[in-house]
């Protein structure tokens, strides 16, 4: 009887773990937008998402042909947006440009000025937060040292 309980328990555990849903599947099944994909952190069962972007040297947007080209160290990857509306293309470009998984060395070519402005504002906010955080730690450390001596 104990063996049957162990087998049934094992089957139940294995079947419960197999119902995981990746963020890509959730996005497709709920008709979300591309920028929602970057907000979610639930990549259950997938490899590290940063690995995909690790070897991207530059990303180029060709407005005339409506394509995005990723130049990687081992090849080229192209996405076509010829039949998309301009508003949808802007959302895709914003999701690409604001993606934090691209390395700092990646250059972005041909992106609209509005999206580049968002990217620079985002970079300034992140850098100022870390600077203020370091200053507050140093200030707290100075107070502790002053009180002990």
Summarize the structure in words.
The chain is an alpha+beta fold. It has a domain at 1-42. Helix content is 54%, strand content 15%. It is built from six helices and four strands. The protein has helices spanning 2-17, 23-29, 34-39, 50-53, 86-97, 113-148, and strands spanning 56-62, 67-72, 75-80, 107-109. Strand 1 (56-62) and strand 2 (67-72) form a beta hairpin. The radius of gyration is 23 Å and the shape is flat. The chain crosses the membrane at residues 128-145.
- Counting DSSP E segments of at least 2 residues, the number of strands comes to 4
Report the mean per-residue pLDDT as an integer: 75
Strand order of the largest sheet: 3-2-1-4
User: Poorly predicted ranges (pLDDT <50, ≥5 residues)?
Assistant: none
Strand-residue proportion: 5-15%
What is the distance, rounded to the nearest whole angstrom, between the alpha carbons of the first and last residues?
69 Å
Shape: flat
Q: Could you give a short account of the major beta sheet?
A: 4 strands, mixed
Q: How big is the Rg?
A: 23 Å
